[in-house]
Sequence to fold (479 residues):
Amino acid sequence: MFPQAIDMQRVLPELIWCGFGVLVMLLQPFVRSRQFFTFVALIGSLAGTIAAFTALAHGGPGFYGLVQSDAFSFFFRLLVGTVSFLVILAAGPYLDREQLPIAEFYALLFFATAGMGVLASAQELLTGFIGLEMSSISSYVLAGYRRDSLKSSESAMKYFLLGSFATAFFLYGIALVYGATGTTQLGKMAEADVAASGTLLKLGLAMILIGLGFKVAAAPFQVWTPDVYEGAPTPVTALFSAGPKAAAFALLLRIFATVPAATQYWFWAFWVLAALTMFAGNLGALVQTNMKRLLAYSSIAHAGYILVAFAAVTSMAQGGSAEAAPAYAAVLFYLLSYALVKLGAFTIVSQLGGFGEKNLSLDDYAGLSQRQPFVAAMLSIYLLSLLGLPVTAGFFGKFYIFKAAVNSHLISLAVLMAVNSVIGAYYYLRVIVVMYMREPSAEAAAVGPVPFPIGVNAVLLITFVGTILFGLYPNPVIN
Fold:
């Protein structure tokens, strides 16, 4: 029995991304031009992202309620599609420089993006599991894509082993929830007898939270993040920091908004996770001298800020969805602004790293403002947005989450968030001080400016414009 046309339209972005992934693999033995594959990959990424509009126009439940095409999934399809497009633009020069196979990279990127799309639109737990595995398996291979690098192989192995444990928790949680409610469809769980389910449902939801907590790098499940971010190819690190994290938060939000039991049981879990994650990320970043590790710990801290909004949603949801809507909007806006900034920052780190990614130390950034003032200015904007400086998207991202926490009377959590923002200021400003107030080493001065190809400059331009635009006009996105 063939699926109906309307069902196919509701998953059209994922079908296009998977189709282009297969296409570049089939063409790889016959075409030698690397630019050709980059062009095909850009077309495929763009086509899948545009197809999100078709999926929205034919919105509704698809495949008997397994997926849901709505404004929520539309937002995340646009987000992960844009992330994949920008990663392809930035990855081309990197893959050429490191002499890595190009077609396989784009195929894996497409499959990972399709998995993220499934994860964001899943309306049923096993469908979410399939999306999670599509994204994860591709990510494990991408993390170890520099096969000649021991660090890259180590990062892939750590990511695979710890990710497998997280997947086991997630799957066992699904089994327990099914045992408690008799269904894996999120919509039908609202009708289940929560009181009769009791401990079994609580345990199942806790295990699902652990599995997704690993994906979003929430403490104490964040230990893989610095090593994987450091060892993976830098364009892959940019993807990890923006795409899979957003998709996992999407599924977490969908479960949270649809299943009343999740809203009831997860409040203190989110409160504790938010506090632990903020401190683990910011305190860990204070002592880093490697840029990729510093940005990795920064990613952990920002996951903590997003979890503050989740805790706020918990108490607001008890008063009805209308009260919780601003907190949901805060999460989505933060994920958008955060993705833009991280993509821009990691793209700069990728280019400045040089062959073999040898120039990743903070000392390598000394005097960057003298050697490449434009690059130093762009990196400063991204870091200030992560810090939450006004006129950048990061400021309004933090402001809306802080406002949601205060409105839901989580004053202590709001104070902890403010304290962590002050801690974060130290290591973000330290990088800017190194770039502008320290003299470059003799070796760096002798080498000269690092070239930035057109594709990389396009990524920087798009992310910079987005960071400033959403910082000046956040209301259209929030509404």
